[in-house]
Amino acid sequence: MNVLKTISYFSIFKYPITFEEIYNFSNIEDKTLLVEELKELCAKGVIFKIEKYYSDNKEDNNVVRRIKGNIEAKKIMPRAWKMARFISKFPYIESVCVSGSLSKGYFEGDSDIDFFIITKKNRLWIARTLLILYKKVFLLNSKKFFCINYFMSSGYLQVDERNRFTATEIATLIPMYGKIKYGEFVRENNWINEYFPNLKRKDKNVKEISKGFFSKGIEKLFRTKLGDYLEYLFMKITIKKWNSKFNHLSEEDFKLAFKSSENVSKHHPGNFQKKVLLLLNEKYKEIEKKHKIKFIQENV
């Protein structure tokens, strides 16, 4: 019942999905079999088809919401491209991708433009600190169009948490700048093909990164032991600050929500990954109880 898992996952976000989206985010490679399975699930009242969308909810409110959000996403994409280009100009930035809801083609009034950023090896924390300083000083700490909460360095590009949530987040990234490093990231995380073997690469429009005088100067200046020291210092200061600010979290939750090392910096105070997967497992239990359909629970 991988198809039902796919529909259930997106229903967590109140997001009905089309046949092609179900195909892309399931492991059924034969579209004829997929059509038959969807017909069977609809006939049994497990899922519902509203216009061209499938959902586990027969109300059409979410379809209207989705269509409106898709329109808003198209409107905001030029701004996302502009911001991605700006981010790519900073020192040590090697790739910039849009993530979050916008990467799924959805945007609404209170949404942020989220970015996933790959930096040079051993300079993640300097790159991150410079971007955060810009946000605090010039954007008055607003993250509306500048939400930079996930960094990885080219020193280690494998996402360690392998589950439906991270597979979906990786699969839906929209690469904008830095085609080479994005390609390396995709190859390092080809385990997502176990979840979504039908997905196609989407790096046709990725632009090259061109650094200016300022970035080149900073990179040259810190190509020394001073740079190594600052890299270590910025990492330690940031982790200490997060530990103090979010000391209410358990050690396990903190490590997941604020995963930090020389090669990764994740700042997710809401621990969204865990919340989504717990909600999804609860949905599986509801379906199992109501429709007698067995599921293997997701790894949280």
Please tell me about this protein's structure:
This protein has 300 residues and is of the alpha+beta class. It folds into two domains: 73 residues, Arc Repressor Mutant, subunit A (Orthogonal Bundle), CATH 1.10.10; 194 residues, no CATH class. It is 49% helix and 12% strand. The strands form two sheets. Strands 7-4-5-6-9-8 form a six-stranded mixed β-sheet, with helices on both faces. The two termini are 19 Å apart.
The class by helix and strand makeup works out as: alpha+beta
The parts where pLDDT drops under 50 for at least 5 residues are none
Order of helices and strands: HEHHEEHEEHEHEHHHHEEH
Inertia-based shape: globular
Order of the strands making up the biggest sheet: 7-4-5-6-9-8
Tally of DSSP helical segments: 11
Average pLDDT over all residues: 94
* E-strand count: 9
Largest sheet: 6 strands, mixed
The helical percent reads 40-55%
Summarize the SSE layout with pairings.
Elements (H helix, E strand, L loop, with lengths): L1 H10 L5 E2 H6 L6 H13 L4 E3 L2 E3 L5 H28 L4 E7 L14 E6 L4 H15 L8 E7 L10 H9 L1 E4 L1 H10 L24 H9 L3 H21 L5 H7 L2 E2 L2 E3 L5 H20 L9
Parallel strand pairs: 5-6
Antiparallel strand pairs: 1-3, 2-3, 4-5, 4-7, 6-9, 8-9
Helix pairs in contact: 5-9
